[in-house]
Design a protein that fits this description.
2 domains, alpha+beta, single chain, Alpha-Beta Plaits
């Protein structure tokens, strides 16, 4: 653990949330891993936090994407479910050293705006971090989606092989929903470190009403008496919306 920047801000930076690219040219690398964090910030502080993120964090991370240190980054705000109201990520490849990346970002920002960095740290009331391996996907511009529907599953490790087999017929269904304009994309993530769950699938939407339509079609393909539902030990849903401009 490095000692040149505060530990809390180190955690903040290790997490920037689910997305492979920003509006900039950030598709130079094919990401394979995601450092994901969830944060609680007073809602009244979110505009100030967002200003610090846009003005201080984003320029540094954009440069890191350009030089190949990162594959991408992003941020989302809570809409439905879960315990936290901000969701952030850094995406990288198997070779990405997330701690080294976080140190570089924190050091650069501390030199530019030490008071702003301290203030941002104090806004964070609670958080936790997870690392996920990125799997099956059909997704091009996740940051453009209005909503992310995140489905967490806990499946016994001995059953993951069969669980993945049961998902295979569903991906063509998702592809069809995308061709109909009901979904913007999907992504499978498999647990690497941290958190309570070991498998999840994320669905990306542009329209809120499409979420209900897709759920209906999903359960038509896997009704509750399907073998599929014998494997989840635990499950949680969260919906995250695109971060609105508040400043």
């Amino acid at each position: 653990m490095y000692r040149s920047v505060p530990v809390v801000f180190h955690a903040v930076l290790l997490s920037m949330s689910l997305t492979f690219s920003t509006a900039c040219a950030q598709d130079a690398q094919d990401p394979t891993r995601l450092m994901l964090s969830f944060y609680n910030v007073l809602y009244s502080d979110i505009p100030e936090w967002q200003a610090h993120y846009n003005n201080n964090m984003v320029p540094v991370m954009e440069q890191m994407v350009e030089d190949g240190s990162l594959a991408g980054f992003g941020v989302r705000m809570h809409h439905t479910g879960g315990k936290y109201n901000l969701r952030m990520s850094l995406t990288g490849t198997d070779d990405t050293d997330f701690e080294e990346v976080a140190t570089r970002i924190a050091t650069t920002i501390a030199e530019k705006d030490p008071e702003g960095m301290e203030r941002t740290e104090r806004m964070i009331l609670s958080h936790y971090d997870e690392i996920w391996n990125l799997g099956r996907r059909n997704l091009e511009t996740p940051n453009d989606a209005a909503y992310i529907y995140e489905n967490f599953f806990q499946v016994n490790r001995a059953d993951l092989g069969r669980w993945n087999e049961l998902w295979e017929p569903l991906f063509p269904v998702f592809d069809g929903l995308m061709s109909q304009g009901l979904m913007k994309g999907y992504l499978v993530e498999e647990h690497n470190m941290g958190g309570e769950y070991n498998w999840k699938v994320l669905a990306f939407f542009d329209e809120w009403d499409n979420i209900d339509d897709v759920q209906v079609l999903f359960f038509e393909n896997v009704p509750l008496d399907h073998e599929f539902w014998t494997f989840p030990i635990a499950h949680r849903d969260e919906i995250w919306e695109r971060m609105p401009e508040m400043n």
